[in-house]
Amino acid sequence: MNIQDFKQQLFERGENQGFNDMELYYEKSDSFNCKIDLGEVDQFTTAEEIGVSFRGVYKGKMGYAYTEKLDESSIEFLVENARENALILEEEDQEEIYQGDSEYKDVNFLSEDLQQVSNEEKINFMKEFDRHIYKIDERVTGTGFFQLMSNNIEKAMYNTKGLALEDQNNFIAFGVMVIVKENDLTKSGMHFKHVQDWASLDPEEEAKKAVEEAISYLNPMEVESNDYPVLLRHDAASSLLATFLSIFSAETAQKGMSKLKDKVGKKIAGNNVTFVDEPFRQDAMKSRTFDAEGVASKELTVVENGKLNTLFHNRKTAKKDGVESTGHAYKESYKGSLTVSPSNFYLVPGEPSYDDIVSSLKEGVVVTSLSGLHSGVNQISGDFSVAANGYYVKDGEVQAATNLMTIAGNFFDLLNHVESVGSDLEFSPFSGVGAPSFLVEGLSVTFE
Amino acid sequence: MLNQSIVQDVISQALSTGGDFAEVFVEDRLKNSITLQSGIIDNSLSGRDFGVGIRVYHGFRSAYTYTTDFSKEGLLKTAQNAANAIQGENRLEPQSFKSQTIQPIHPVTQMPQSVEKTRKANVLKNAYDIAKRHHQSISQVKVNYLDEEQNVLIANSNGKFVEDKRVHSRLAIAAIASNEHDMETGFYGPGAVQGFEFMENLDLGHYATEAARIAVTNLGADPCPSGKFPVIIDNEFGGVIFHEACGHGLEATSVAKGKSAFANKVGERVAPDIVTYIDDGTLQNEWGSINIDDEGNLPQKNVLIEDGILKGYLVDQLNSRIMDTAPTGSGRRESYRFAPTSRMTNTYIAPGDSSPEEIIADTEYGIYAKYMGGGQVNPATGDYNFAINEAYMVKDGKIDKPVRGATLIGNGPKTLQAVDMVGNNLGHGAGMCGSLSGSIPVNVGQPTLRVSEMTVGGRKEEA
Fold this sequence. Notes:
The structure holds two protein chains of two kinds. Chain A has helices spanning 3-16, 72-88, 112-116, 119-136, 203-215, 234-243, 250-254, 315-321, 354-360, 411-415, and strands at residues 19-37, 40-58, 61-67, 140-159, 164-182, 185-195, 226-232, 275-277, 300-304, 307-308, 329-330, 339-340, 345-347, 363-371, 383-394, 397-401, 405-410, 418-421, 426-427, 434-435, 438-447. Chain A is of the alpha+beta class.
């Protein structure tokens, strides 16, 4: 059944069953994914997927249901389950179906060039990338994970108030874990990238970055556990920011689970900290022209020189706080319910380069990656204690890698103790959050 | 779910370029999730996942494709996409299907789809009331109810044609305790391969109270010291540490390529003789249990480590070719979106002789990890990290004050070597395990045990 027929029958049945306003949200994705091991394609996946979610107002409550099967049995499933779901909801403040804004930014996130790249070309790129990995350094023993994925995503929203919106996006992302060995010690380094500009990719260049990263962890030195100034490299920095992203959500705040509740208009960070959300970046993965409620997206400065200007709002949280929606309604996919989340959120970069900051350190630790972020973090209190990899710095120079460490601190304290912010802004291919490297005054560092 | 002749055509199409094995996995899954927060039901979602995954092998290589398009043309096109990635010499004729009926070994009495949502909502309300009432400092309780009915059809070119129904139910209770300065959380998430009868028989008094008690305990706790200590890990979910640190290293996924620290070590000593490590998908109605795996094979009790000696691995079909050993009923996947690979089911350390009291009494100074949080491991190096959700100092053989914010870091194979006491109180805890073939329900388990030395990361420097 095509989506327009499905929509029509769904809305008809919904109306017959007593629904008032209704919405159909649609996602279609075509993807390709390959893994390479020892020069060969180890895994090859292609997929074509469609999913839709229905939401509608029944007796004053918003009921939800989704399906991946577009057939008549699903229409009955959606309407029946959405109705039953609406009936058990107890919240007084309810979502509404939105009639739409007068204007939406006219921007195309789809790269026609990328559309034309065949799966064979992508595999060849990976095979060449793989050859270079083994050529660059004889300490390379293998790759633990070597994968490329490309995706073409269409999103659309139709509702009974006449709104019809569509966005389309495509991208390529790849990642590799290079394994190296020296003196009986095995170490690994990761390299990831998310791009739309296929022509800009050079397999040798990427291989070099990946191998250098892995080699940098060989021959670690013993370092005494202590409080150190910590330079979070851009990738570690963005993963830490991503972990604490929910503190900027008005929804989290209204549920009493963010310390930023009642802090709008107040200083929450040092003067050198500015956070921006920019939905129209061509190079970032969370770009959009409308949010999950159909509100037009716009650029937003969330924290300006340390002052919290606003939290992220959807229409429901905005109504509760007596403000306008900032256009940050979000659904993880058609499977999710409505929450609040930024588009391309990032820490605005400063002047010094990464190398400048390292040179400025008398003694300190560079953290290049964090793990255990889903478990070693308390988003509410801001406390974190997470495993980290990185280097020891003395007299302005990186001495060597350290053994596995944990760094511990408090995110809210950290925002007020940023010593300097680097110029090397990069967006994470996982979370979509962007950060430059930044230096924090003192964190507790424990070495294994 | 799909008729045999269409499936037969799809398999033929998948083999058209010379593949030597093809498999079709059809999934139709109905899900319900209900959330209660601040005392009211604020979210209720229902969904239907439906799709078909097609896999083709040629020797050690494989291709996987999937689609939500269930038309015959859509399926044949998807099969052709998979075939296009294979270049074989001979065209194989698939064997005709020998339809198999699976006797479910995990009985379900109340199918979740047949239970009214208001009854499900009542379970959340009861859990909320118990947790909220526990202590005045409990400021927020979030309860999540989940049920799933997954219907699958697995057919392959060897003539397999089998259907299964998997039913899962889980309740997750998160409590937050707060005072002027801090907020702390406590969590408990029991689950089973059962229908709504699981919810009706669940001891909410125990689980909801524990979630609240953990939050309250952490609120009054000092920051955990960092350094190296003996660590006593309590039973049930404490087993997560060996799941991450050893279990993943025993999966064929990492063993077949020689990338695990346990590769090529069958018959060798990898742990002290008090350690026996087992994966068993047949444990009745346990959260990680299965009737058949996602390749259509029966689950079994796999003894991985016996008295410290490595006995075997968890092996899926593709890796069984590479390793030249029989599959162990361990092929699992999150959904049709993933090709199956070797995964755990219910994995646990077998009980030993010591009582939990003896283990504590034997410890002069260390950490007692009563409830573990999540963690992760780098399979190439075996390095892991974990959060402890509820921890205490142990002094002079007695449990002392609670401490918070502790993490454990270390290396899996080394930690296994350092187990020096194993208790007699085996228990299992439910979790979700994420790996190559997606996120799947697994149990982790162990009795209370002690590791002679682990690195603890905390916010307080050890004096």
